[in-house]
Amino acid sequence: MKKRLTVLSTIIILVINSISSLPVVQAEKTSLKDVQEKRTGIQSEITNTDQEISQVQDEWNKLTEQIKRVNQAIIDNNNIIAQTEVKVQASQKEVFGLEQEINVIKDSIDQRNEILKKRALTLQESGGKVKYIEVILGSSSFEDFVGRLHAVAAMVQAVQDLVKQYEEDQEAVVVKQASVEKKLRDLKTMKIELEGMQAQILEQKEENNILKEELKQQEQEKLSQKLELQQQDQWLALKEAGLEGVDPNSITTSSTL
């Protein structure tokens, strides 16, 4: 009787162990599948992250080239501004020199005006053209007549020459002054435009620097994200190996940055 009870107990234990082992096997199969699916999802995320890192690096390279161009533009613009400033100073000296020349011409004009006034007064006092005729008709001889005629003609020509020179000097002053003043205005306008352009370029440089820092931060974030995903993948790979009974040392994961 005792022997039969022992055999029955043994059979019951074996049945219980068999029954209890069935859910464990099913759990192991389900767990392995879940792990593999998680690894697949994580590896996909790693691939996407690699692409995002590549895009950020491409933008970084393009921005670096743009920054080089902007820096060169700043240098070139500074050179042009410096050259324009030299031209402005030269034009200002030219204006100063021209003002001195204008003063000389004005003095010459004033002197001619005084001469013209005196000659006009002389003509008025002598009776104008009538007096000239009297001078000519009062000649004592033909030679005296010719001489007086030449004298009168010379006086009239001198007056005409003074008037002509006066008009030419005035025109020269107006033309020179207008030309130099226009040149100076153009140079000052160019300098203002260049300074405005320089301000815009410097603003662009500042924006580029800000964008560069943002890209650098994005790259660091993506690299950190990739590292975290790789660590998760490595942990799941070890878990997968344990479920499959594989030596963990033989597992290869996406652990390279």
What key phrases describe this protein's structure?
257 residues, mainly alpha, 3 helices, 0% strand, rod-shaped, disordered N terminus
Oligomer: single chain
Count of discrete alpha- or pi-helical segments spanning 4 or more residues: 3
Strand content: under 5%
* Radius of gyration using CA atoms only: 53 Å
In the predicted model, the low-confidence regions spanning at least 5 consecutive residues are: 1-28
Largest sheet: none
Please bin the fraction of helical residues: over 70%
- Global mean pLDDT: 75
Strands, count: 0
* Terminus-to-terminus distance: 71 Å
Shape: rod-shaped
- Along the chain, the helix and strand elements come as HHH
Structural classification: mainly alpha
Account of the 3D structure:
It is a single chain. It is rod-shaped and about 150 Å long. It is 92% helix and 0% strand. Helix 1 runs antiparallel to helix 3 (142-244) and helix 2 (129-137) packs across helix 3 (142-244). It has helices spanning 2-125, 129-137, 142-244. With 257 residues, the protein is an all-alpha fold.
